[in-house]
Fold:
Amino acid sequence: MPDVRMKVWRGDATGGAFVDFTVPADEGMVVLDVVHRIQATHAPDLAVRWNCKAGKCGSCSAEINGHPKLMCMTRMNTFAPDEEITVSPLKTFPVVKDLVTDVSFNYEKAKTIPAFKPKPKEADGTRRMYQEDIERVQEFHKCIECFLCQDVCHVIRDHEENKPSFSGPRYFVRLAALEMHPLDTNDRIDLARLKHGLGYCNITKCCTDVCPEDIHITDNAIIPLKERIVTRTYDPIAWALRRMRGKSADLGAGEPEPPSA
Amino acid sequence: MAEYETHDFDVVVIGAGGAGLRAAIEASAMGVKTALVCKSLLGKAHTVMAEGGIAAAMGNVWKEDNWKVHFRDTMRGGKLLNNWRMAQLHAQEAPDRVLELEEWGALFDRTNDGLILQRDFGGHRYARLAHVGDRTGLEMIRTLQDHAVHRGIDVFMECTLYRLLTDDGRISGAFGYWRQSGKFVLFRAKAIVLATGGVGKSWKITSNSWEYTGDGHAMALDAGADLMDMEMTQFHPTGMVWPTSVRGILVTEGVRGDGGTLKNSKGDRFMFRYVPDFFRAETADTEEEADRWYEDKRNNRRTPDLLPRDEVARAINTEVKAGRGSPHGGVFLDIASRRSSDYIKRRLPSMYHQFMELADVDITKTAMEVGPTLHYIMGGVRVDADSAQSTVPGLFAAGEVAAGMHGANRLGGNSLSDLLVFGRRAGLYAAEYAKRVPQAPRVDDRQVDAAATGMLAPFERREGGENPYAVHADLIAAMQELVGIIRTKSELEEAITRIHAMRERARRAGVTGSRIYNPGWHLALDLLTMLTVSEAVAMSALARQESRGGHTRDDYPRPDPQWGKKNVILRRRDGELSLVTEPLPEVPAELRPLIGEDKPTGKVALEPVAAAGAKE
Ligand SMILES: Cc1cc2nc3c(=O)[nH]c(=O)nc-3n(C[C@H](O)[C@H](O)[C@H](O)COP(=O)(O)OP(=O)(O)OC[C@H]3O[C@@H](n4cnc5c(N)ncnc54)[C@H](O)[C@@H]3O)c2cc1C
Ligand code: SF4
Ligand code: SF4
Ligand code: FES
Structure:
């Protein structure tokens, strides 16, 4: 097989540039394989994250020819033979080194989402839920936390200043998963607007386009959340009904439990 | 003197997979100050990749199921080498641990009456695996992760611990480095829970990730703890074999549980020729009966495609060697002929996706090519069954890094349940232990300095040293070739000789670049760990002169009743590894009838066992 050529961004927080590499090709190679081969033969200190090599862990996110993608699921045969291939780190997060970025933003946002709080069990001690009632939430649970949707979202991609007040599509999916969970009793609707910045989203759908798990982030998570906010804000009857159905609308109760340490 | 930051905790949990997360949740619930440390980002541990499900005798699909049957299946699947007490606790407690996940927000697939659905898996008499399609591990790790985040556990991500510290034979802390900055970090701790997972990165064909370098095994050994039955490695029968770059990636047993059958190049369902006597009574002996079993499980016996993994892996190995393999050196796994496209996409979405994207194969239309891949290690740190404490006071171990629970072969689905049951126990007893320790542990500066000096040595050699990637490539080739599915004395001896030579090379490894996120440096350090663990496996495999479960010896092809009563123990004293055997704890009289009186006998299937059509 002919060799493969790839331009990989190398550098750190202070700056960097694309470096050209050529390595022998193998059948069925993905971008991550090429990066590993570069490591083993040319650049032993080339920094890259990965774990499963099968699209299941969400570690190997990068921008391939400028598109946010999983390196382990991007086959080399999807490029034309003489096409230039560039691999660079996610743009929305600060670079640590080479292809590795500091994604702690996401883990901080996760902490601010109130925990799951189940209602009491059935009289017979079980929890009965039917497949059709959980299918929507199961779609959200497919999220592998690759943060590609976070990377592509223009609200934070080019606007560092929005980060404190905008949690990003991954966390809208998480909010929706909790809100639509058949057993959950916490209420996060007001929080979604006030604290997580759902209002900043203008439904460009870029997040949905890049999601490797095919989660319909905008149609199934963001839009229903927005609708709930609208109903909440303009429809006091629906709000009261909701309260009666057991969801507490008290914003305070929705705050995360204070960490003990 | 090395520079480092210092943290003080009651309990430090090393590892944030299922076992580590569950341990940390329990320890912090006990009110002790708890840290959770992991090499990757939170949520990326191996547990996230688990596909098929969590085994627990909840009886939602089969009312007949209960802990006793689960205990029996686990013991028989482990070829009776299991620690019976661990197998019992596991079978008894697994259902509660699964229901607890539901309390914390997990959403398992449902039965028609709204309960948790359970699926068939190899070696389990009843459909027993709670699951979410074929992404059960993701559901489990995310549930635990989200639960842990709200409990105020301090999480240290991308932080690799490299040495355990001891004070007068007791645990006093652990020392390692931040992957991102390369800076050193010291944890002073009253108790430590190892939940570091397995060892697969020392083999060429493996389903395991870069994290599986056996750090917990090696750190425990160096701290004076016993390792047990390290020869017991599991080759999962169905890894991908093609294209080359995905070789070893797992194909879940759920494919067979949901209707997939194995065939050789002649279209033969060869598994019928490899049914050992030990499992004959419960296995279909005709294709007709096996086919009927998929539709009517009550009145038919199960298909031999779902024999325990060691049996299936050996059978595939034999078929390929006999020239009846698929074009790329595996066999065929066919679900398309039995199930509709919709069914396959709904039950096995990630398998569908994985083959479509990585191999251009549509599994709803064509058969997959599969072959054995190093998947799991049953051996590991020797622990007390109830408390999960190792032979070193203050050091606990749970999950894949611990030994005993699975004996000579693990049943599918029994790992995720093991993580929950023993993760919880390790966290609980570590916290209790920490509460009993009167004063803060003393850390010996000399231990820290020695570790730090060793860790920085590769930077001094720089380009002049050995390339760690090259040594690693040689190690995985040697382990694949010499310590594989079928083993023999001369090859194991050769492996040990080569490991010694590679250790000399690894000690001369050099790295370039800075300490900031430097994979070459990380690998240079991991290499020494992998060599320790590889030597432990090879030595134990050489010692056990019989074939049992995941350990098959060409020169001793039968299980030996005497060996069946022994554990192989490795320990390090004054720098030297020593190996002894110790008696396996005996199953108490009241539990024996549950298992059945028969013992695994007969030559293992190095060739087809049944006469019909065997010699072609
Ligand atoms: C593809 C695949 C599918 C599987 N499917 C199933 C299934 O369906 N059912 C089932 O029961 N089992 C399954 N298994 C097996 C099961 O997933 C694993 O055995 C199990 O997840 C191991 O869990 P653990 O908690 O012991 O370790 P892991 O989840 O591997 O976690 C280990 C942790 O330790 C950390 N660590 C390691 N070394 C260090 C160090 N030196 N310093 C700091 N941290 C460290 C790692 O970063 C990681 O966080 C599967 C395995 C694979 C690979
Ligand atoms: S749809 Fe909303 S969340 Fe998604 S990328 Fe566009 S602005 Fe961001
Ligand atoms: S929602 Fe999709 S794109 Fe976003 S983090 Fe999850 S898997 Fe990745
Ligand atoms: S390595 Fe896990 S998603 Fe790519």
The first helix of chain B runs from residue 18 to 29. Chain B touches chain A through 70 residues (CB under 8 Å).
